[in-house]
Amino acid sequence: MQLVHTPQHTQLSLFEAFMAHPLAPILKETVEAPWNVEPEAFSELSLRGAAESCLNLLAPILRNLSEEQDARWLTLIAPPASLTQAWLREAGLNRERILLLQPRGTQSAQQLTCEALRLGRSHTVVSWLNPLSAASRQQLVNAARVGDAQSLNIRLG
Q1: Residue 5 exposure: Cα atoms within 13 Å on the Cβ side
Q2: Number of structural domains, the chain?
Q3: Which helix (H) or strand (E) holds 118?
Q4: What residue numbers bound the domain in which 56 lies?
Q5: Is the pLDDT of residue 8 over 70?
Q6: What CATH code is carried by the domain that includes residue 49?
Q7: pTM for the whole thing?
């Protein structure tokens, strides 16, 4: 028994077919084109689970924000009771760059957050507003843009 090998047309894989057509001019234009990406004024993080677990997940984010090169504050508005000065110290946050603010009198946490954002003395204002309506979210976005700041809302579930 003799095996005869007949040549067949080879079919390029999708990857090989893609690579057969050089994209250098397209990639070059893309890389050289200036990226005019404006950072988002508002971000939201939703955490669910035990309070201690949520704080452990939040610690590296807040630590990173507390070490920003921006000379302005990291401001925390009405954080949960478990987020204490001792917790900030244990989590390794730069406490010299953090403001902890609580609303006073009839002022709401939403109003205080908007005011802190508008003033522009903070690079990031972290709030714990839940629920947050679309209108409230838009107020935070507008205030952040006025103050050239970032608004980060944490939703604990």
Answers
A1: 1
A2: 1
A3: helix 109-119
A4: 43-156
A5: no
A6: 3.40.50.300
A7: 0.76
